[in-house]
Amino acid sequence: GTNPIVVGQWTHLAVTVDASTDSIFLYANGDLVDMAKGRLNTAGPNDIYIGHRNFTANPDAFDGRIDELRFWSKSLSQSEIIRYRNCELSAPNNSLLSDPDLEAYNNFNQGQAKGSNAGIDSLTDFATNQYNGALLNFALSGNTSNWNNGTTSLTIGCKVCNDQPISNTINIANTICFEDSNGSVSVNTSGGQTPFTNQWSNG
To answer: Closest Cα to residue 50, out of 32, 71, 28, 34?
Structure first.
């Protein structure tokens, strides 16, 4: 298929696992782009390496920038991936930080972009588990191998409804009905996550 990754542009990547079918799904910018049979090896207290393989002889270091890293203990749906991908989970405006399924969250908002960041070699985890990371073999100065500018497409501190329904009550007084008609009411809904569903009931 078409390669969704464009050099020089930020790409949101998400990987989910369906343990019931041993399936792994890859999403790029919210679109499902690939799937494979298999499962992740999560046995043992092994460290997780981001940006290169855990093989000294052939690490295959990643040549690029990384921002907004999240680990979940549940498999997010495609709609959740799309909903959360451009939302920075900044406290105290986002309830997802206290979500028990959010195992780790790193926003990479540390240090001075491209500046002198000697000693700032810990990556803060803002989720409740506080699994802080460590930067290994970084120069921490200059334009590369350093803290750098992140993606600019994020909504800072955006609020997420977590799929909870929104209830609106409309009180209408002195409504005039014409003949056998019950009249009509127009409601304009904005914000939130589409599609919207309206339910009507007689009070």
So the answer is: 71
For residue 84, how many other CB atoms are within 10 A of its CB? 21
Q: Are 11 and 26 in contact (CB under 8 A)?
A: no
Q: What is the rounded CA–CA span in Å between residue 38 and residue 49?
A: 20
Q: pLDDT tens-digit profile of 24-69?
A: 999 999 999 999 998 777 666 778 888 887 766 677 888 889 999 9
Check if the beta carbon of residue 85 is closer than 8 Å to that of residue 30.
yes
Alpha-carbon gap, residue 141 to 37, rounded angstroms: 41
Has this prediction a pTM greater than 0.85?
no
**pLDDT, tens only, 67-112:** 999 999 999 999 999 988 888 886 555 678 888 999 999 989 899 9
CA distances from residue 72 to 57, 76, 90, 166, 173 in whole angstroms, order as listed = 30, 8, 17, 25, 48
Provide DSSP, 53-122: -S-SS------S----EEEESS---HHHHHHHTTEE--TTS-GGGG-TTEEEEE----S-TTS--TT--E
DSSP for 111-155, written as a single string: S-TTS--TT--EE---STT---EE--S---SSSSSS-----S--E
Cβ neighbours, 10 Å, residue 101: 12
